[in-house]
Design a protein that fits this description.
The structure is a single chain. By secondary structure, this protein is an alpha/beta fold. Strands 1, 2, 3, 4, 5 and 6 form a 6-stranded mixed sheet that branches. It has a single domain, classed as Lambda Exonuclease, Chain A (Alpha-Beta Complex), CATH 3.90.320.10. The protein has 7 helices and 6 strands; from the N terminus they run H-E-H-H-H-E-E-E-H-E-E-H-H. Helix content is 44%, strand content 19%. Helix 5 crosses helix 6. The relative contact order is 0.14. The radius of gyration is 20 Å and the shape is globular.
């Protein structure tokens, strides 16, 4: 008598995620530079298996995202979800777009009980979308998952002048050009890292490429 082995359903989910993320994308996306461009290059040339932590982050974030979008899409005359925007060969998708006000809305979840101001790197992503859509006003909306009271949600207004939107587009083009150059040369050291960025340096603590990145930084300092 043989013992039946239980299927690894969790492993199946990981494999599906890996299949999705391994597919090449055409052009460039704003999210390619929203976090750590250097890590983005590492993942392209040396992809690693999806971890349970990444699966957890994806599934919980995706579920909340879709729930929030579903609420707004009860009014399709006013709102559009995953609004497509482009600038040259750079594309992006806005979580929710207020068509009447020409305002992008970006949603983020936090594993904390409060937030006093938008995260700088997340606001930067919103500003890229605002510039691409030529919007003078956008909103960051946060859900604090560890807040079980009546103030778990926070909304922050972001405004940009025409000159600021123009500068933001120029910055976007520079960032993508630098990333593309690093990708073409298969050299992560040519891409910007976030180890000295106070708002993003937390990524280094859990980055699987930290050792290689550290060696590149030491080599650059010694040169």
């Amino acid at each position: 008598m043989t013992t039946e082995v239980d299927p690894d359903y969790i492993g199946m989910m990981r494999e599906t995620m890996e299949g999705w993320y391994s597919k090449p994308r055409k052009g460039w996306h704003v999210t390619d530079i929203a976090l750590c461009p250097r890590q983005r290059v590492f993942k392209q040339i040396d992809p690693l298996p999806i971890t349970d932590k990444e699966l957890n982050m994806y599934s919980s974030g995706k579920g909340i995202h879709e729930a929030v979008q579903h609420l707004f899409m009860s009014n399709p005359g006013m709102f559009e979800k995953e609004k497509y925007v482009e600038y040259g060969d750079i594309v992006g998708s806005i979580d929710i777009f207020d068509k009447k006000r020409n305002s992008p809305l970006e949603f983020k979840t936090l594993r904390s009980s409060k937030i006093d101001k938008p995260k700088s790197f997340q606001e930067e992503q919103l500003r890229y979308y605002m510039a691409m859509q030529n919007s003078h006003t956008g909103y960051m909306i946060y859900q604090c998952l560890m807040n079980f009271g009546n103030d778990a949600w926070r909304q922050f207004k972001v405004t940009m002048t025409e000159e600021q939107r123009r500068d933001q587009l120029e910055k976007l083009a520079r960032e993508i050009k630098a990333l593309a150059y690093a990708m073409e040369n298969k050299d992560p050291s040519l891409a910007r890292g976030v180890y000295s960025d106070e708002g993003l340096s937390w990524m280094c603590e859990d980055c699987p490429y930290t050792k290689e990145c550290m060696q590149m930084r030491k080599a650059g300092a010694a040169a």
